[in-house]
Each structure stands twice: as structure tokens, then as C-alpha cells.
Amino acid sequence: MNDQLLSARDLKVSFDLPGGRQAQAVAGVNLDIAPGEIVALAGESGCGKSTLARTMLALEDATDGSITFGGKSLPKSTKKLRAFRKQVQLVLQDPTGALNPRHTVYDAVAEGLRIHGIEGSNEYDQVISALSQAGLRPPEQYLNRYPYELSGGQRQRVVIAGALALDPQLIIADEPVASLDASVRGEILALFQRLRDDFGLGALVVTHDLGLAWNIADRIAVMYLGRIVEQGPVEQVLLDPQHPYTRALVSVLPDSPVGDPQVLTGEAPDASQIPSGCRFHPRCPLVASGKAAEAGIEEKCRTQDLAVLDADPRNWQSACHYSAQFGRDEVRGTAEPVADSLG
């Protein structure tokens, strides 16, 4: 769609392994992020979500497919990529590791400005403005502090301020609150929402926490073994998930709208050994319970691969043979959505 800011089309990322094997970290993904939109990319550890995010930031090379920013393909030259990365900033999980312990807060926030050649007479004002936008007020009190003098939440705000100093259009945040205390997480999530509402800043938030996605995102894309298996508006997907994997993830949340917890058996398969057919079928409760066999689609689940979901943000989509054949009511079963279950 022409109004999308950052887009991936048929994206694939593979890594060579010993013995001539290949790991398919991203095995075909279509994803869009619109201006001023927060998209959550959710899934278990090892599903490929961080690799996808890094590839969309041009920190990893795509094996196949394309990435566009503002409708234009990402440039190849380092100079032009620098201009792109000024517009799309990365916020890492560990603020302590992201900050140089020998740099003051002022130097940490000004670092991006200097790298991009924006230093000068306005540098001080830009640092002050970025710290204020990130919620460190009054900003003058923080300029000469070092990371060890700050709390975890304050350090994360400094990292975010360093990104905001460059006036980006989009932030890619990889588990932005995973290392923070529960009491601080809500403040950082509220900050992302305020940046969206007040400044039109878009974000791709990588997370394994569906509760976080519920509280912060406009849309959610659920990833499993290199593919997005369900995506759509966050309230629809999390209140009435259609893919068995999404339902299992939602089922273990407090006051889950999908009924009793569903514990998935085994680990996610190795990315170098993608199962035939639906990549989720070895762990799928519908297959394990015999429900897929009763419906006459077990063989299809085991042998027929599913098409890559398209990127249309208006669609609620699920990559599941069962839901495709029998529809929403059959997948849902007897569980009915409860409007405030995840709030």
C-alpha cells in the first residue's frame, strides 16, 4: 500500500551452518508499518522476530525479497543507508549495554547527532528537547550524569532520547522493557504511546509478551519459525485468535478469553529443519487431539505448506488449514471473547 512507511515483501533471511546446512531465520514475510502506527511483532524466542527487525533496519542482509521505505527500495551504499537509519532508529533491550559507562547523558544523546554530522550550534537544544520528549524532566538535571547514576528506567529513557534527537519517523524497539522492573514497564510503554499520539512516531515493537502487545500496539503480527502465522488489529487477534499457536500463547495469560491454558508440547523446531506442510503441525493441539483428523485435513496439515500472508493491514489473517476450511466459529469452539480480559 502506498501509504505505508516501512514495508517488507516476500522477505527471506538464511544463515549458513556447518555441514552445508542453512537456517531459515525468516522464511517469507510480508509486513507493513504505517506512519504513526505501533505494530507488535510477537512470538517465542528463536522464531526469527529479531532477525526480521534487524533486516528491516538493514543491519542484516536479506537472502531474497525486498524492503522499502517511503515506497522506495533501501539503498545499497553506506552513505545513503546512513540517511535511512537517521529516519529509522533502533532501541535495544538492554539500556545498560547500549550506553557507554564513560559518557555522560549529554554525550550519549548527542552521539547520534555527531555520527550523522548534525552537531553544531543547535546540538544543546536538540539534546534538551530529546530528553524532555523522553520524559526526563527537567532535562538540565540529567546532562552531566553517568549511566551508573541512573535507574534502569532512566537509562532506557536516555537510549530513547538518543533516538529521538535525530527526529526519526520510526523506531524499531527490540524487547524495550524486558530488562526493566514491572513498576517501570508501564511508564516506558506509555512513553511510546505518547510519542505516537503527540509526534506521529511509528514503531515496530519486538516482544514475546502478548500483554505488552495488548497495551501498546495498534496491530500485531504473530511469528512462528520464520513466518507470520497471524496478523491483524491487536484487539481482534488477542480476543479471538484464529491460529492454534496464537490461541496457545493467549491461553496462558491471566483471565484469558480462550479458556483453559494450552501447554504446547516440545520445543520450536530447528530453523534448519523446517517441517513439511504447516510448520506448526508437530506441536499443534488440533493435530495432537485428533481434531484435524476428524475434520479430514490432517494429511493437508502435514504435507501442504501455507501461502505467505499478505501485508494488507486492513485484513485479519491466519495461516491455518483448519481455520481456512471451517472458519472462525469452529476454531473458537466454546470460548467467547471477553472485551476487557487482557486489559
TrEMBL record:
According to its UniProt record, what is one Pfam family this protein matches? ABC_tran
Q: Which UniProt keywords apply?
A: ATP-binding, Nucleotide-binding, Transport
Q: Which SUPFAM superfamilies match?
A: P-loop containing nucleoside triphosphate hydrolases
Q: Which PROSITE patterns match?
A: ABC_TRANSPORTER_1, ABC_TRANSPORTER_2
- GO biological process, any: transmembrane transport
SMART domains, from UniProt? AAA (SM00382)
Q: Which GO terms describe its molecular function?
A: ATP binding; ATP hydrolysis activity
Q: Which residues form the ABC transporter domain?
A: 6-250
As for family, the record states: Belongs to the ABC transporter superfamily.
InterPro entries per the record?
AAA+_ATPase (IPR003593), ABC_transp_ATP-bind (IPR050319), ABC_transporter-like_ATP-bd (IPR003439), ABC_transporter-like_CS (IPR017871), Oligopep_ABC_C (IPR013563), P-loop_NTPase (IPR027417)
Q: What name does the UniProt record give this protein?
A: ABC transporter ATP-binding protein
